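Recall from the previous lesson that a structure prediction takes nothing but the amino acid sequence as input. Here we apply that procedure to M50 family metallopeptidase from Lampropedia aestuarii. The sequence below is the only information supplied.
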Amino acid sequence: MPAPTSATKIRPASPNTWRTWRLAAALLALLLGTRLIAAFAQWPWLYWLLAWPGTVQHEASHWLVAWALQGSPSQFHVWPDWGALWRHSQGGVGGSFSLGSVQFIPNWYNSASVALAPLLLWPISLLWLSLALRAQLWGPRLLWLYLAASSISSAWPSSVDWQLAWQAPGSWPLALGLIALVSGVLWLWLRHWWQRRPPPKSLV
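The prediction returns the following tokens.
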């Protein structure tokens, strides 16, 4: 009588799993490409063009949080200093130029929230990634991935933002609470959305 044998069946990866990995690879490639252009900015005009969607999101986060917390935002600029950009392009590597700016009136409770508002782009990037997963064609899929990469690469506050936040330590509790609240609400909403409307299984 032969001894009983056991066999382990290896289940192939689902199409959605492979699509997720391909999207992650595409997102990583976009991020690395943007960072390389930033590090070796021989072509600052190209870097400005690629970074522009992230610049808009970065400055919009400052503006919206300042508006919500009575910071009277103004001077919303998402265009660079053209003169500085031209000089930088003529001089090659070295120097710096501003991609955008927003002015607001800081007070004891809104300074850190407004200064650290770009951190909210991390959870917002999940929205763009979710839309990329649902896209049926690679054209729209790459567009959403590009927005996700722009959000992630622009989510870190600038040195000026950090200085402003550290100048008002009493405003940090509200800032941390706001980031946690927005992240939690967006995550719950995306989870509910995915449960009610799962992403399609077909691949292009």
